[in-house]
Specification:
Elements lengths: L1 H18 L1 H18 L3 H34 L2 H21 L3 H14 L3 H34 L6 H10 L3 H5 L2 H8 L3 H24 L3 H30 L11 H4 L5 H18 L1 H11 L1 H17 L1 H14 L8 H36 L5 H9 L1 H8 L2 H8 L3 H26 L1 H28 L8
Length: 472
C-alpha cells in the first residue's frame, strides 16, 4: 500500500510541476532574467526578484501542501475530510475577521521611515502593530471558542469533533499576528519569508503522512495541522527578531497602542479600514468553504476546497507579485507617473502568467485530481473548469488594491471590497440553492469579475487626480 502511494506521489510531482506555481517558475525566471538585461527600472527588477524568492519557496510549499491534502483525502472519509476543511476554515475566518492588517501598517509607515534612517519612528510603528496583534488575537480566540458550540451543528460537526475544534481555536492568536511579516517585508528580507513558506508545509506534509500511515483519523490530522501552523508562525517571529538584532534596531517589539499611535498620523484610520477590508475579503474567500458546508454539507465543502486549492495554486504568481509590489510602490511618489506605469507592467506580466496557468490546469488538472485524490473527488475538476476563468481576472487585477492604499484611498478600497463580497455571497447562496455545488463555481467566477470592476473604478479616479497626491 505504501509503495502504491509513493508511486502515485511521483506522478503527482510530475503534474504538479506543470499546473501549480512550479509550472510557472521556469517562465517566471526567464522573465526575471530578461528584465535584468533589457529593463532599466530597478524598482521593477526588485519586484521580480522578491517575487521570485517567494515563488521558489512556493514550488516546494505547493508540493508539500498537496501531499498533506492527499494524505487527508485518502486517510479519511469524504465527510471527515470535509469536516477537517470546515474546522480549519472556521479558525481562519475568525482570525481574519479580528485581524488587523498590521503587516500593511508596518510597510505603509515603517518602510519609508527606514529608508530615511528614522529608526525611532519605525519602532513606534512596530510597537503599535505588535500591540494590535496581541489585543486582536486574544479577543478573536475567546470569541471563536464561544461561538463554535452554537455554529458547530450548522457546520456539520459531531459532538466529539467540537471539542477538538475548540482546541484548534487556541491557534487563532498566532494566526492573527502579522507584525513579523511586515518587519521582514519592510527590511526587504523576502528570503526569510520564503524559507518559512517551505518549512511549514514540509512539516505539515510529514505529519500528514504519519497520520495517514498510522490511521490516526480526523483527530490525528487536526493535531498535525495545528502543530505545523504553530511552528510556522513561530518561525516568522524568529526571523523578524533575528533581522531586527542584525540591523541594530532596539525596542521594536514592545507592545504599545495609544502612546505609539499618537506619533503616527492617521494610524487608527488606516488600521481600522484595512482590518474591515480584509475581514470582508476573508468572509468572501475562506468563508466560502464554511458557507458551502452549511448549505450543501461537508462533502461538498471538501470538493470546493480542492477546486479552490487548485485555483489558489494557479494564481500564486500574482499573489507573490503583490507581496513584493506593495512595499516598492509605497516608496514612490504617487503624484508621478512611475508607480502607475509600474502597476500596468506588473499586471501585464501577471495576466500573461494567468493565461499560461489556464492552459496547463485545463490539460492536466483532471489527471492530477484522479491520481492524487482518487475517483470520488473527480467532480472537483468540473468546478475547476469554471473557476479557471477567474484566474486571469484576479491576476490582472492584483495591483488595484495596492494603488488605492498608495493614493490614500483606503476607504474606497474598503467600499469596493465590501460591495464585491456582498454580491459574491448573495450569488453563492442563490446559485447553490439553484444548481448545487456547480452553482458555487459560477458564483466564484462572477464574484471575481465584479470585485475587479469595483476596484478598477476608484483606481481610475485616483489616477486622474494623481497630481493632488502627497508622498509621505
Amino acid at each position: 500500500m505504501l509503495r502504491a502511494v509513493i508511486k502515485r506521489w511521483q506522478y503527482h510531482c510530475f503534474f504538479q510541476a506543470l499546473v501549480t506555481p512550479a509550472g510557472s517558475s521556469v517562465l517566471f525566471y526567464l522573465l526575471s532574467l530578461s528584465h535584468r538585461f533589457f529593463v532599466k527600472d530597478n524598482v521593477f527588477k526588485s519586484i521580480i526578484r522578491n517575487a521570485s524568492w517567494l515563488l521558489s519557496s512556493n514550488i516546494v510549499g505547493a508540493l508539500f501542501g498537496l501531499l498533506a491534502l492527499t494524505c487527508a483525502g485518502h486517510g479519511m472519509s469524504t465527510a471527515a475530510f470535509g469536516t477537517l476543511v470546515v474546522v480549519q476554515a472556521y479558525a481562519k475566518v475568525v482570525s481574519d475577521v479580528a485581524k488587523f492588517q498590521t503587516w500593511q501598517m508596518v510597510v505603509r509607515f515603517g518602510a519609508p521611515a527606514l529608508a530615511k534612517g528614522q529608526k525611532e519612528r519605525f519602532c513606534n510603528v512596530t510597537n503599535f502593530s505588535f500591540g494590535l496583534d496581541l489585543m486582536s488575537g486574544g479577543v478573536a480566540m475567546v470569541a471563536g471558542m464561544l461561538l463554535l458550540p452554537w455554529l458547530g451543528h450548522a457546520m456539520g460537526l459531531a459532538a466529539s469533533d467540537t471539542w477538538l475544534a475548540l482546541g484548534f481555536c487556541t491557534l487563532i492568536p498566532f494566526m492573527t499576528s502579522a507584525t513579523s511579516t511586515g518587519i521582514l517585508r519592510a527590511i526587504d528580507r523576502f528570503d526569510l519569508i520564503a524559507l518559512q513558506q517551505m518549512v511549514k508545509p514540509a512539516l505539515q506534509a510529514t505529519g500528514s503522512v504519519i497520520a495517514w500511515y498510522f490511521e490516526l483519523g480526523f483527530a490525528g490530522f487536526l493535531v498535525t495541522w495545528y502543530l505545523t501552523s504553530l511552528v510556522g508562525n513561530l518561525l516568522l517571529w524568529g526571523g523578524a527578531i533575528y533581522e531586527l538584532n542584525r540591523q541594530n534596531i532596539r525596542g521594536a517589539l514592545r507592545p504599545r497602542l495609544f502612546s505609539a499611535a499618537r506619533s503616527i498620523e492617521t494610524s487608527w484610520n488606516f488600521v481600522w479600514t484595512t482590518n474591515l477590508a480584509h475581514s470582508v475579503y476573508s468572509l468572501r474567500n475562506a468563508g466560502s468553504n464554511v458557507i458551502v458546508g452549511v448549505v450543501l454539507g461537508p462533502a461538498a465543502a471538501g470538493l470546493f476546497k480542492i477546486a479552490t486549492s487548485f485555483f489558489n495554486a494557479a494564481g500564486t504568481p500574482s499573489e507573490l507579485l503583490e507581496k513584493s509590489f506593495y512595499p516598492e510602490i509605497m516608496r514612490l511618489d504617487p503624484s508621478s507617473q512611475r508607480p502607475w506605469t509600474l502597476a500596468i507592467r506588473s499586471a501585464a506580466l501577471s495576466f500573461g502568467l494567468g493565461l499560461v496557468m489556464i492552459v496547463l490546469v485545463g490539460f492536466f488538472g483532471k489527471s492530477l485530481i484522479l491520481l492524487v485524490f482518487g475517483e470520488r473527488y473527480v467532480e472537483a475538476f468540473d468546478l475547476l473548469q469554471i473557476m479557471l476563468w477567474a484566474v486571469v481576472v484576479s491576476m490582472a487585477a492584483f495591483p488595484l488594491e495596492s494603488l488605492l492604499y498608495m493614493a490614500h484611498r483606503q476607504r474606497e478600497a474598503l467600499v469596493a471590497e465590501g460591495l464585491g463580497a456582498i454580491c459574491y455571497i448573495v450569488m453563492l447562496v442563490l446559485f447553490m440553492k439553484a444548481f448545487g455545488v456547480m452553482g458555487a463555481a459560477w458564483a466564484f467566477l462572477g464574484g471575481q469579475c465584479i470585485n475587479a470592476l469595483f476596484f478598477l473604478i476608484p483606481v481610475i479616479g485616483a489616477y486622474r487626480h494623481r497630481h493632488t497626491l502627497v508622498h509621505e
